[in-house]
Amino acid sequence: MQLETDILVVGGGTGGVAAALQAARRGATVVLVSEFTWLGGMLTAAGVSAPDGNELEPLQTGIWGQFLQELRLRQAGGLDHSWVSCFTYDPGVGAEIFADWVRSQPNLKWISGYRPTGVLKDCDRITGVTFSPTLDAADPQLTVAAQLTLDGTDLGDVLALGNVPYRWGWESYDWGQEPSAPNALDNPQDPLWAIVQHYPVQSPTWVVVMQDYGPGAAVEIPPLPGDADHEADLFEQFEAAWADHGADAFLNYGRLPGDRFMINWPNSGNDYGIGLERLVQSAASRQQFHQAAHAHSYRFARFIQQRLGQRYGLAAD
Fold first, then answer.
1. How many angstroms separate the CA atoms of 81 and 260, rounded?
2. Residues near 203 by Cβ (< 8 Å), separated by ≥ 6?
3. Residue 56 — very low, low, confident or very high, per pLDDT cuts 50/70/90?
4. How far is it, in rounded angstroms, from Cα 58 to Cα 200?
5. Alpha carbon distance 92, 62 (integer Å)
6. What pLDDT does residue 137 have?
């Protein structure tokens, strides 16, 4: 399949969806290509449906304000369930909102189930993108030519395919005068030096959604193959997870409607920052990182169940 459009947006995360919607609302023809069938990225498919923030008034403008208002209308049981945020919701409800918005624009075509595999170029200008299917598709190849291409992927996949230079990691305070930047990247005396060395970029988290099945329930999370014989050693990294908060506060940090919990916990939890450079080395190394991060979060979920009881299992759907 070959298409032409004014604007091509690659990636169905929050940034990609917002860009596609606003461009279409301004009258441009837009093609939005997403790898997954859920739009919304971090707020939906990635499971972070308890976004940080307890101040609602500043958040009522633009697409974000529209999103909150739609959540209020659609989310049964309301939005105020956790202490990390004033609004928590079922990720599927959020995905439905974004999908409905995109489908409502007559000049916006959304195609899901494709990832970028190459770029079209005119000298140093990207003029389109070629895609391969990630799901069963009638068309094995997709090519979209565009006047303007926007890279809305998590890791800049289109820029990488076009050999566009990029920076990986921290920048010093001198480079951009950001208040939170380290003064020097190579100075062990800098308070942020250890963090810079350990985490070249913000540590990702593979989010888990757990559910309270009630007293007496036993919905076991079995150990991963090969884990059983040394599970105590694996659990040691999680032992201090809620030591400063208590178990109830830990669970209610990201409580969702329907007795569910968003497990997105940085303190001895499911942040995973080992070998982050694998994310940008190759497709194979990125998949290896994903598998390792998934296993790390799965073990954290099993640890939670082992310590707090088998009433807490993985959410069924």
1. 10
2. 266, 271, 272, 273, 276
3. low
4. 31
5. 21
6. 65
